Each structure stands twice: as structure tokens, then as C-alpha cells.
Amino acid sequence: MRPVSTSEPPKQYDYDVVWRDVYGDIQKYGPGHHHMCRILRRMLSRIEYGSVLDVGCGCGHNYTLLTKNGVAPRFGGIDISNYALEIARKTVPGEFRQCDIQQEHLQGQWDLVVCSLVLEHLADDTAAIRHMRFMTKHYLLVTSIAGDFERYRKWDETQGHVRNYRVGELEQKLREGGFRIRESIYWGYPFYSPIGRTLQNQNQMGLGAFTWRARATAKLATWLYYLNSSRRGDMVFVLAETT
User: Fold this and answer.
1) Deepest in the core among 21, 93, 98, 186, taking most CB within 10 A?
2) What is the CATH code of the structural domain delimited by 15-242?
């Protein structure tokens, strides 16, 4: 495996633009996102929490999942994008703040802190983990991308990614940041990775609004992805707790 990249994203990378023009319908129709939510739902069912903070909350699309359909009495979200936060404030209940998790953290703690598909965007993921530790009372749930960054650089850079994690690398960084690992899952082989990711990289699939053809393809891939391994693949899930 080639070394992962830790280079910073281009300075002109604007996450307001990304949320408006790049991500498009991938949160709604993307097969990878469908299965990510399925796995997260299963992991969340094993822990109890009364408050949750979504780090990198975007437009609030994780609200229903993370609050178990509104059960959690306290929900908060932080993001670097004001555009995404304005949508979140209009569409779901909660406390939303602009925050660069590499530079700062909020005062107070939440029973559960969730950081989903964020760390692969950050030049200083170690600082982000350190700041999340300050805000975590009991549990931290992280999802990110593993595998060979150089192999999928063309696609990853359209999403603002600066790294993919080697197997065990994210867990080690969490341990060094003051967490104990409860569960770790690598998912996606072979249909998400390498097949799906290779197609994304070659054809730039999944960007912007989905046409009816893209929706049909995504639906087919969603069913196919049920056959993926939960022991091997390029999507990593880690449930950790404070030490």
C-alpha cells in the first residue's frame, strides 16, 4: 500500500460551495451512505445516551439517526460551513454552531460525540480528536475512509479528502487522544471497495444532483452492497469511550 497523503486541501476549497454544488444528492441516494447509516444504527443500539453532538453536522441529515427518531433530549451540531448550518437550523431542532474542530471546541460535554466522514478532510486530525475529547462525556463514534489514497486521489480530492487511513491507524490515534476502543469495523469489500470506488474515481460518479439513471444505479448498488464484508473494506467505523 502506498503512503497516505497528509497534504492540506487547496486554500480555495470552500465548504459552502461543496455543500451547495458538489455533495448534491449523495446523502439521500448514495449506496455507501445508506449502508453507513445501517451500520451506525446497529452500533448506536448498543449504547445509551441522553445528549449527542454531531461534529461536521452539515445540513442536519443525521438528526433522525443520531437521536433515535427524536428520543435524545439534547442534540447539537457543529460545522465549518455556514451554508450547511443555515439549512440545519431551518430543518431540524437542535443547537448549531460554526466551529473548526481543528482549532477549537465548544464548552460543555455530550454523552455521545459523533464524527462521521470528517477526519479524512482535516489536515490536523490529531488536533480534531483532542478537541473532541474535551467535549465527550462517555462515547465517541467515528466513521472515515480507509485504503489507498493515491489510488483514488482523483475522486477523493473532489470531496476535499486529504487522507485515507491504514488499518489500525485511526484506532491508534484515538487511543493517543484519550479514548479506549470498544468496537471497530472495516466494511465494503468487494463491491464498495475496490469496485465502487474505482468506478467513482474513473467516472466522477455521485457528484451533484442525481439523474434518474444515477438514482437507478444507486438503488441497484445499494442492494448489491448488502453482500459486502464487515471485516474488510475502505469504510471504517470506530466506537470508542473515554478513559
Assistant:
1) 186
2) 3.40.50.150
